[in-house]
Amino acid sequence: MTIDLSPINQYYTGKITQHGASSKGVDWKDEQGHALRFEQFLPLFKTDTVFSLNDLGCGYGALYGYLVDRGYEVAYSGYDISEKMLVECIKAYPDTDMQLTKSASIQQGADYSVASGIFNVRLGMDDEAWSEYVESVLDNLFESSKKGFAFNCLTSYSDEDKKRPDLYYANALDLFHLCKTKYSRNVSLIHDYDLYEFTIIVRT
Hints:
Rossmann fold
């Protein structure tokens, strides 16, 4: 499914321009929550310490830094719709051979693919259209991954008085069912890490 992502591009470009290569620059509240989200992806890799990775919505490459700091050897391909994000990624990791592409979809295969935070900001898009878009992105993650993929979403179990109309709150059980029936029998739903969101891991 193709939708106009230019307003979202402008939103995130504004964030990285204002806050630089930081958690706030990719619209997260703080460094602690940012790292906690990345931690949920680690079971995807199981015992693998050397692998190729597609990072859709890579921002300034924070996931790459997180994994390298923990001893992983990653052949990293980052994708983002914001040119400014990719510029900041190059600045943050100037001595690496990571591949960066300005794109809303993954263009090549890898062992694993991840998408962190890219489903949250939908601005004026209605739930039905955004849900269809989310599924199309999951198709792309699945088709691009040899061993598996993972993603996170804001949860529909969030407190009603704290929900924002410009954000998308997904039904974790619906997405678990989708992944279980469409992509693989090996699916994990992680919803116990004290943020208003969940992570799904799919091993193919």
